[in-house]
């Protein structure tokens, strides 16, 4: 499977995170794709140097910052494996949960998405309150039964992801979009850790201003969904 890691200015956080990922996925054939979203702190140079030591590590770089959803999309498009694990590059997501999320996808062919849900947040009180309000509104309007869609820990089938409509901030609506495609979703409680290096790339106001229009846009997408029946190519039996 492929681990996709969106990152912007995370030169200090990525090396120890990659070491943890390697430890957690020991014995598993995998690749990790770091998508450098236009960093200017030397993230690309740090990761490129590590690729000499870590044959499973790949670097893809955006010429300029395009946002987390775009970075995830780039990573998935470059991925070689049918199963995708997603984890943020800031080190706040704990890779210890990756094996369990992978196994959940492997064990259930009807499961399209596994969503991490943080038990305890290390954000400011204001950001936590704003997030709780936004998650409550989203869950009520979209019916995705997910209390925390912003957690970076997710597992998804590559083919399914590529069927989803792409738009900025779509990563916050994965559960609703996956349900829209007729797949099942599952949740797993995960640990949120304190950021060691750098700072968050967004605040409360900018996230809220973008989130509301997208929320109603996804609601519209759900309302316009029409189920497409399964199809099978018809062929003439060669023996007849």
Automatic annotation (TrEMBL):
Keyword Cell membrane included in the entry's annotation: yes
Pfam family, one: Glycos_transf_2
One Gene Ontology CC term in the entry: plasma membrane
Residues annotated as domain Glycosyltransferase 2-like: 2-161
Keyword annotations from UniProtKB, A to Z: Cell membrane, Glycosyltransferase, Lipopolysaccharide biosynthesis, Membrane, Transferase, Transmembrane, Transmembrane helix
Entry's Gene Ontology BP terms: lipopolysaccharide biosynthetic process
GO molecular function term, any single one: undecaprenyl-phosphate 4-deoxy-4-formamido-L-arabinose transferase activity
Protein name: Glycosyltransferase involved in cell wall biosynthesis
Native species: Amorphus orientalis
């Amino acid at each position: 499977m492929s681990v996709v890691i969106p990152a912007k200015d995370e030169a200090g956080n990525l090396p120890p995170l990659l070491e943890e990922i390697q430890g957690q996925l020991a014995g598993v054939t995998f690749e990790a794709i770091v998508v450098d979203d236009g960093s200017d702190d030397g993230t690309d140079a740090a990761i490129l140097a590590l690729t000499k030591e870590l044959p499973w590590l790949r670097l893809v770089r955006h010429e300029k910052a395009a946002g987390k959803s775009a970075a995830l999309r780039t990573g998935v498009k470059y991925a070689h494996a049918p199963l995708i694990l997603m984890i943020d590059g800031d080190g706040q997501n704990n890779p210890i949960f990756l094996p369990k999320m992978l196994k959940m996808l492997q064990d259930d062919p009807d499961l399209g998405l596994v969503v991490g849900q943080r038990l305890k947040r290390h954000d400011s009180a204001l950001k936590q309150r704003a997030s709780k309000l936004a998650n409550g509104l989203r869950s009520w309007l979209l019916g995705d039964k997910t209390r925390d869609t912003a957690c970076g820990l997710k597992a998804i089938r590559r083919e399914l992801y590529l069927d989803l409509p792409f738009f900025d901030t779509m990563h916050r609506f994965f559960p609703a979009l996956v349900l829209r495609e007729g797949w099942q979703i599952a949740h797993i409680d995960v640990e949120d850790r304190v950021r060691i290096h750098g700072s968050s790339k967004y605040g409360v106001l900018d996230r809220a201003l973008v989130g509301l229009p997208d929320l109603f846009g996804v609601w519209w997408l759900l309302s316009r969904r029409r189920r497409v029946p399964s199809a099978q190519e018809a062929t003439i039996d060669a023996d007849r």
